[in-house]
């Protein structure tokens, strides 16, 4: 994936448009400044929340192992589908 990049002044002048684009397209945006150490990446809050949840799950060894075992069972066809009525 190639991340779109925009210079800071353009980002500032079109902030609302870029915020909408990042949220609507679920694609991050790099904001470039004169000093590369000050570049930033803009993502939607929902993407941020998803990344935080993924990190939380990955850091929980017991839960991570359980998820991996479940994925292996699905790949091996060792699961049964059940309909949930509600």
UniProtKB/TrEMBL annotation:
InterPro entries: Antitoxin_Phd/YefM (IPR006442), phD/YefM_antitoxin (IPR051405), YefM-like_sf (IPR036165). The lineage of its organism: Bacteria, Bacillati, Bacillota, Bacilli, Lactobacillales. Belongs to the phD/YefM antitoxin family. Coiled coil: none annotated. It comes from Streptococcus parasanguinis. PANTHER family: ANTITOXIN YAFN-RELATED (PTHR33713), ANTITOXIN YEFM (PTHR33713:SF6). Antitoxin component of a type II toxin-antitoxin (TA) system. This is Antitoxin.
């Amino acid at each position: 994936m190639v991340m779109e990049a925009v210079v800071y002044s353009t980002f500032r002048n079109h902030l609302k448009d870029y915020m909408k684009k990042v949220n609507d397209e679920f694609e991050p945006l790099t904001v470039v400044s004169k000093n590369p150490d000050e570049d930033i990446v803009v993502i939607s809050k929902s993407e941020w929340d998803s990344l935080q949840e993924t990190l939380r799950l990955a850091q929980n060894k017991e839960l991570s192992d359980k998820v991996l075992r479940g994925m292996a069972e699905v790949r091996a066809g060792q699961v049964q589908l059940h309909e949930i009525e509600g």
